[in-house]
Amino acid sequence: MSITAAMLPALLGRPVAYQAVFTRLPGVTVQGAIFLSQALFLTNTPTAAARDGWFWKEQQGDHDSWEAETGMSAKQQVTARKQLGQIGVLEEVRKGVPAKTWYRVNTEALAQQLALALADETDEKPPESPAAAQNLPTGESENAQPENQESPEGSAQNLPNGVFLQRLQQRVTPSLSDAGEPQPNVFERAAQQTDDGEPAAEDQAAPRKTAMHLDWEPEPETYRVACMQRGLSADANVHDALIDFREHYAAHPGRTNTHADWTRRLVRWIYENAKRQHQHAQQQTTPTTTGGNAHANRRDRTPKRRLTAQEARAAAEGRAPEQPPGQTLDGEYSAHGCGW
Fold it and tell me: CA 320 to CA 252: how far, in whole Å?
C-alpha cells in the first residue's frame, strides 16, 4: 500500500500549542516548556475548570497520555515535572482507587514567574546606542519591537519595574485601535475545546462526535492508515466484522466519537478478532498436558489399599492376622429378644 499526501492529516494527529516563552522560566528546558504548554491547555478545559483546574493523564499509552500528546518518554516527563514543580507552577497530587496522578497549573505563580523572568531579561541587556539604532534597515520587519528604541523614559532595556509592567499589560491587552480581529489566547482556545482537543459542540455547525448507527461507514484514508499501523490489509473482506461492530456500539447510544476515532476503533476491533482467532487455532493444533487431558491419564480404578506391617508379617508366615482382643459371649443371638 502506497502512502499518499491525503494520509498526512491522519498521520500527524492533533498538534500541541507550544509556548516558547516558557523556556525563559528559571531552570526550564524545552522539554519542560512543552510539558507546561500542554498542561496549561488542559488546566483551562471546561472539564478541568469545573474541578478547579485539576486534570489527570497517564504517562504512557496509545491515546490520551503525555507520551501520545507530547512525544516525551517517561524519563523526560519526570525531568520536566521536577523543573516545573521546583518553581511552583505545576501542582501534583496522587489520589483515587486505583491511584491516579492529578495535575494543575498554578496560573498565578506562572504569571509571576514569567513577569520576573522577562523583567530580569530586560535588566541584563545593555542599552542600545543611538548609533546602532541609526543602522536599522529602512523597512523594519513586523516583528521589530518599538521598545528597542530610545524613549523619553529612557532605554527600553533599563525600564523601571512599573514601566515594564505597563508594557507587559499592553502586550497582554491589545489596543482596540489595532487592525484585525484579536487572536484568542491559550485560555480562550482551551475553553473552546473539549479535553481531547476537539472543538466544543456549540462552536460547530454540526457536532463532531456522534453515536454509532447501523448505516455507518469507516473513513477511507483513516482506515488505510490505521490498518497499516497494525499490520493489517486494508483490502481484506471485513463485512461481517463491520456488521458486528455497528450492532455492538449502536446498542450503546451514550458512547460518542468522531468519525476518525470510530474508524480507528473499528480497525482495533478487527485486529483483536484476528488475534483471538489465531490464538484459538494454535490451541486446537498444539497438544497440551494440562487441563482436560490430565483427567484422561488418571487410573480407571482406585489403587489397592496398602497392607499394614502386621498384615504383611502374617501373610509371609502363612497365617491369618491377629484380631484385637474382645469379649466373647456364649449363646445364640435372638432378633426378637433383642439380645443373647
Answer: 79
Give domain limits for the chain: 14-110, 205-285
- Using alpha carbons, select from 224, 191, 187, 193 the residue that is nearest to residue 209: 193
Distance (Å) of CA 90 to CA 40, 84, 85, 86, 117: 9, 5, 5, 8, 17
- Bridge partners, residue 226, by sequence: none
The answer, yes or no, to whether residue 290 has pLDDT greater than 60, is no
- Report which of 71, 44, 70, 68 is spatially closest to residue 55, judged by C-alpha positions: 44
Is 28 exposed, middle or buried, given 0-12, 13-18 or 19+ CB atoms closer than 10 A?
buried
Higher-pLDDT residue of 205, 200: 200
Judged against a pLDDT cut of 90, whether residue 207 lies above it is answered with no
The DSSP H or E segment spanning 90 is: strand 90-95
Domains 14-110 and 205-285 share a fold: no
Count Cβ atoms within 10 A of the Cβ of residue 303 and give its class: 0-12 exposed, 13-18 middle, 19 or more buried.
Answer: exposed
C-alpha distance across the termini of the chain, in Å? 101
pLDDT at position 158 over 50:
no
Task: Scan for cell 466544543, then name that residue.
Answer: 200
User: Distance of CA 46 to CAs 90, 219, 262, Å?
Assistant: 19, 29, 24
Q: Which amino acid is at 87?
A: I
Determine the pLDDT at residue 91.
95
Alpha-carbon distance values, 151 to 48, 130, 147, 155, 156 (Å)? 44, 11, 8, 6, 7
Q: Which of 306, 239, 220, 299 lies closest to 10 in space, CA to CA?
A: 220
The CATH T-level fold of domain 205-285 is Helicase, Ruva Protein; domain 3 (1.10.8)
- Interacting residues of 293 by C-beta distance below 8 A, sequence separation 6+: 287
Among residues 231, 234, 225, the alpha carbon closest in space to that of 264 is found at 225
Q: Would you say the pTM of this structure is higher than 0.85?
A: no
Q: Which residue has the higher pLDDT, 289 or 232?
A: 232
Task: In whole angstroms, give the CA distance from residue 101 to residue 162.
Answer: 39
14-110: CATH topology is Arc Repressor Mutant, subunit A (1.10.10)
pLDDT score recorded for residue 153? 43
